[in-house]
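Write out the 3D structure for:
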Amino acid sequence: MNGQYEYRLFQLLPIVRELDPQQAEKLAKEFQTVQTLLAKYPQGVGSLDTDKKNPGNGTSFFVGSGAPPKMAQGGPGAQPNPMEMQRMQKILADAEKNPADALASAVTLSDPRMKTQTLVSIARSNGKKNISVAHSALTKATESASQLDGDASMMSMRDIASVYFMLDEKDDAKKIIEKGITAAEKIYKIDINADNPNLAPKPYWPSTAGYRGMMMLAMKISPMFAQEQLKEISDPEIRTIVQIGLAQSLLNTPAGDTMVMSFTKESAKVMMMRDGDDDRK
């Protein structure tokens, strides 16, 4: 069963428990991950809003698909500058007609995440017809992504690598994947922080999702390259989880949505990440 089903069950099981306790108990036993989460958050998603006076303080939800992410609520950086958003949208609207102007405007965006997203989008939309602009945008996007932290850096690296792959520039894609795996390792160190560890099940850690996303793209480039990069995953359990994902991809099993969770003493974050089709050839 995919992560989206489990997330929906996590949302709805408290209601089911009120209407049909026996059915709720049956579902909880069937889906151990959901049962573990509900033991800590008995009201499901409602339990995550830990600060009613300051909504969004430490709680965030995210749905990603390779496109610029939309933050539904809470979390650091969840509310981007409206003026910057308007500028970003205008730049993207002009990207195909005036790619050089769009590129020049994109680098003036002050928010590194929006700048990176905009540059990647410019590269993707111009890759097949204006390769020089695409190359320049990807180079600048890589520089901008290096200023990002955590999952923002890792996801940006995956987007950049996917465009290089789309352009059939596999050597460049490999270099970015290696950077992305390094970013995932940094996230892993946050997940295992002894003072404030991620209490979510390990298959749903942000670092696990980061490794898996990078390795899936690596597999599309070269199974041998993917196997080499697999050795860079220091955690044996996560390495096994990723290996299972790679095996499924070889069998052409649809990956579906991935649920990503980070539950620490100070915050709770739930993300639904969808594999986009942009990087598939």
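The first helix runs from residue 3 to 19.
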